[in-house]
Amino acid sequence: MQRSVTRLAIRLTALSAAVVAAFAAQAAVTVTGNVGTNPASVLGPGDTALPGTVAWVGTVSGSSSTGSLTIDNGSFLSLARLSFGAGSGVGNGTGLITGSGTQVQLLSVGNFGQTQRLLVGDWGNGQLTVSAGALLSTRGNQAPCLLAFHYCDTFVGAAAGDNATLNVTGAGTQVLIGQNLYVAQPGLAILGLDGYTYGTPGGTTRGTVNVTGGALLSTDRATIGPRHWSTNATGFERNIAEVNVSGAGSRWLVTGGQAVLNHATGAVGEGQAGIITANDSNAWATIRVSDGGVIELNGPNDTISYVNLTNGGTSRSGLAGGRTDMVITGAGSQLLFSSEAGVLNLARQRGTANLLVTDGGSVDGLWYSAVGRDGATGVLTIDGASSWVRLNSRASAVANQPSGTSQNAAMDIGRNGTGTVNVLNGGRLLVEATEYRQGGNSLQLGRDAASSGTLNIQGAGSLVQLTGISNTPGGGATETRNPFVSIGREGNGTLNIGAGGKLLMEGGAVSTPDHRRSTSLIIGGYNDTEIGGKGIATVTGAGSEIRLTGGDTFVGVAMGPQSNGQLTVSNGASVSANGMHVGRSGGVGVLKVDAATLSFSGQQTGGTQSGAFFSIGNGGGIGVVTLSNASQVTLSNLGSSGVSMSIGGSGNFANGEGSVTLTGGSRIALQSQPGLNSLTVGREGSGFLRLRGGSSIDQGTGVLHIARNSGSDGTVIMSEGSSITAGWVGVGARRTDTGDTDGGTGTFVLINSTLNADQIVIGTNGFLGGTGTINGTVTNRGIFAPGTSPGRLEINGGFIAEKDSRMILEVESDGKGGFKTDQVIFNAGQPLDLTGLNIEFRFLGDTNPVEFNNSELFTTDTFFQVKGTDGSLGVLDATFFSDVGFKASAEDYTIQGFSFSAAAGASDFTAAPVPEPGTTAMLLAGLAGLGWLARRRQVA
């Protein structure tokens, strides 16, 4: 603030005092005590029009420093400038403007002796009450206020050390403030440095504004807890500012208006409707809206209307903000943005801000909100079943400068700062879009690299909901945007949902192939090309939920280069969408599901029109998924695209590394029309699937690929009574329209588990083995290995061995003179063709092949059996082995002279122990030493 406090002589004449005394009993304009004017004038006793006069109430004169001014009974007073409590820090001024029809107009030209219009506390103690239907206005005569270096503002506490209060109370009462309202300005000027003296160095300014009883306070703009305006402030000045709006019908209206935008150039334009708080590191602002009170911002639609709680301004400590505490409490209490482009910032420039919306309070009409911005810390808490915050507005390209793009509603929690939003005990946070704009309808946590954002949704009925509402039947270029949420966009984001809280994303806009409208939740990162951040989301407890509905919904856990994401769903919670990616496009994603449910359903209508999907580690990403304690994952779609699950690469995002583990009776079910579902473990990348503890995967008649394409690798291990059901299974093989072809390197191991499929194909680089049961026909081009050192595997179906296929049969000593062997049990009446099969007998550990041969167990009857329809076991006729090749190997023996036939068994052969590695190493070392010694002797 620029001001000159060089005052012309203040005349308190005996004549004026006598006039006041004579008319006091009937006067409507009354002064008592020390009241000064310039030029010298008499105020009252009736209507008084002195538009060029400055008045000070409560100045210092002699030993007295107290004065008062009362305007009542429908009287009128006009002045240029009016101040209360003006006098070297000790003046005490009070004012009362009261009564219906009573009116005070302040009309200064804004410079020289008329700088500013109203000062309650002008280096002193001031109090002004406007009540009972009276009117106080500083909005008249605005033309001179729009000239460079003209100032027509209002202060409640203007100088360091002031103590000031403005009360606006009673139905019909109005206080209309033009230009700027400053509450608790720590103004300071030092004679030797500024040329005049004003304010108390190191002093604390206290300013309070109360709007009660149905009254109206209307301002163009306001700063609650401003920054220092003097470059010579000591840095120890503090300001404590407070605004209270209380009671039904009580309103603070902020309208914007013309202002000087640059005093150096004289540029004039729309100054915007806005409230700034705690604009200095030493400022503390408090705003309370209660019992039905309302703060409303209603500026022009092509400009931003804003509330910046702790804005941050220039101070001794550089760009730094102070502290703001705002409470909106009670039914009907509200912060309302009634024009477009409403902005709510909670903390900027290293300051702090806390906003509590509780007990039926609300915030409505927002376009954009940031919680924790520019190195600051912000906290928004929405607490209680009738408490809510809604972002449902928009900003035009004209208003949204400097970007120049039109935007739907959006919220950032942590934007180059630290932000926390708590939605508790039935509170609601709502984001809505009803038309197409270039951006928005989004919620982002940890937006920028140096950001941290946390969203807590706790308690039954607590809700965060983002909605896209269609405005174009059938979709198209003008269709509304659907919601987007990012947890850890480029920074760190944390989402906690518990005790029945919900995050709902409703994509009501229609998505088409040409004009896609995705509804997406990304945990770690935000797209496939930009470096992403770190996101952690936890959903726990019965009734707690993340649910995406409508157009093209999907959840991404770690999407984009260097992104990291983790999603934990536990204890009865659920997550649902069209599909989910875990670790995509260079991201590293972790999904943990513990006694909880995932549901992926439906078919997208835009893009590739994917059916329900679940992709783990694709597009060069890494994904890790664990399902435990009877967790359930369901993929369902009866549409033409069916359903798909991929681990290690997918059709749209090739390559990647994925791992999925099911334990404790967990289950994955893929439901579609016949043949329209697929599960791939290693498509172009690397995939691993593990089932334990009675867990299961049920594809119905779907296709299971393990190492689908050349160059991929896939592994499936299931144990402890687990099962997989599919229509067709390829292990290192890929199904084609005409049959099948070889894929990558595939491994499928059963350990006391069951594989159900009509057809199982083992490709050239495939391996299928273990213990348990295979219900289906096996075609082998690779390796079939019953047992797991060793064990029994039953095939309840056909077995067809193609040329050069292999079967590995293991033998191991039981340590008691006996032997354990692998066994294959075929079922009677099923196709069996061993033509072209190569069988390798492997002797494990220190098992002696010759001793096994001497036991007379080295026959096909030991390794192959046939189960009859009555369950009895028989031997396999030797004719089945007429075109089978045999060989043997041992870990600890070298076998020579081996031959085998089904009819005669093994021939006599020899098996010499392989030297111990330690003995061989010692022998080689000894020989090397002898060579070194010989060379030494030759040299000598």
TrEMBL record:
Residues 1-27 form the signal peptide. It comes from the Bacteria. Residues 913-937 form the Ice-binding protein C-terminal domain. Pfam families: PEP-CTERM. Keywords: Signal. The keyword Cytoplasm does not apply. This is Ice-binding protein C-terminal domain-containing protein. It comes from Pseudaquabacterium pictum.
